[in-house]
User: What shape does this take?
Amino acid sequence: MTSLNAGQQQAVDHMDGPCCVIAGAGSGKTRVLTYRIARLIEKGVPAESILACTFTRKAAGEMAERLEPLIGREADLLNLGTIHSMCYRILREEWRNTGEEYELLNEYWQKRFVKDILAPPGPKNPDGLNWDLDVSAALGFISHQKNELITPEMFRKKINPEIMDAYRYARLYELYEARKEQERKLDFDDMLIRCYYLLSENPAILAKYQQRYKYILVDEFQDTNKAQWEIIRMLAEPENNLFVVGDDWQSIYGWRGARPEYIVSFQDWYPDAEVIVLDTNYRCNKHIIDLSNSVIRHNTDQFPKVVQAHRPAGKEPIRMNASDEEHEAEMVIQEIQTLMKNGMEPRDFAILYRTNAQSRAFEDRLVKENIPYVIIGSAGFYGRKEVKDIIAYLRTVYDPDGNEEAIKRILNVPTRFLGRVFIQQVEMHAIQNGTSFWKSLREIHAKPFQKERVNEFIQIIEFLRGQNTTPEHLIQLIREATEYDDWLKREEGDSEGEGNTRIENLNELQSAASRYSNLKDFLDFVEMMESRTAQPDEDRNAVQLMTIHRSKGLEFPVVFLAGMANGLLPHKNSVQYMDGIIIPESCAEERRLCYVGMTRAKDLLYLSYPETYQGKTMEPSIFFEEMDKPALCG
Assistant: This one.
């Protein structure tokens, strides 16, 4: 372990009692965690007595790979995984003793349960709330309560009647839990809240796991929520051999309940804790470190440190000003092409953005220039459900007789209760009569309610076909005529994770369409994009596109941090305004997100700003004002 610096060695050598390692970006925290596990085993601690908790399954897998050369077969005896998986193992072990059995509930069924609860009451749904609440918002509310360890009974007891819909939220939570219990289902957050109350209400069971897990290590501690923290604290008692590693500067999951204050105030919980600061960054050049430090220092209530660069100055970060998102993509891809001519590979580049919708312009340009790319963590823009739905409408409008698959996709979008059996009947009619699916849809004899819904669909298509307008306006008309946006929120939920919205994808589709004057040209372009879209292979030699959230823990020789504009980064939904101006103090998490994006770059960092986005004028990001100007070129 001679390759460790003094701070890393101090952390690795820590044995008993609580310890908090403040590990700045690129400071080698994973090495510290793996080497400390090896040191514990070297000192005689049985591997099965060690519990190591990571934030993601991928991180757990990477840690296991690093541990195998250090400790050999002992790695198989470790308790290594996410906090959720650890809690689920405890629950299943105790259920075997009680005969209980639950099945995990996937996202589809969660949304199904909630949609039923929010729907109007009826014979099969007497408890329907008849509430137009967004499905994602409803599930987000329930998840938040569980991560705060609040049961339905507790929530109802503390209701503030002045809060709008407070009683409906209480009823939503109660009905959701009752439906799950009736069907013996368990959702993702149940792993935490059920494990917490199992341990806190059963001293003998808690003591069993306290004896089992004598040494506990927690990675990415800054993203721990209340439920996770309370479980970890209970398990660590009474010896408190608790070793946590994280960086409050990189806490970017507040919307999931993350509490960066836990790492900042660790010594308030454990006054005798050893606190070790790893402040040497081995990843980024000095200019990148200095610039990122100048941004993050504007946050308050954080652990005081100054990250130092191990590497020399290198090249300064560059600011790129673009007229709009199309020009921004053009500038970025041109720079990539220049650097590739100088010997760099596609895999050396990452394009990071705040919302998934921003990938569209970069995908379009990369395809045009025949540069391979891969999107990490989501489908390519033209493969996203809401985008494919609207494209299917456009294809139907353009040529209903020649687009059978498109009609099948949207016939029941939004919901018209024209299911698979009805579609098969139309298909059979078309085959028997030698006609198109569209013509058979108009001719088929159906039940009265089906015929009424079919006629509504046909009228919408005929109305749209009669509009002599641009593809951009036609998309807007589709959204309005079908009330697609409202349906999407009601059925799927507007959110697609990481604070991103599906509605933004639809707005971005209209931006893409604005470059075309006729529908055929736009559909030809979409078909080309669909045929050449990114493949989900992270090992390809390709430019990597992802949200900043997805980039956490990764590093690249060259990073383009795109969309540095108020409203995008910081995002409009994540900050507060006064008289139309962003309140800087409300930007803490968005500032940390900017910091994370900047510190993914090893050698070159580009910060791009579009003067307009989706046709709206954008101001430069407030974070530009916070940067030390000498460190920023362009």
Summary: The two ends are 43 Å apart (CA to CA). The mean pLDDT is 92. The chain has 28 helices and 20 strands.
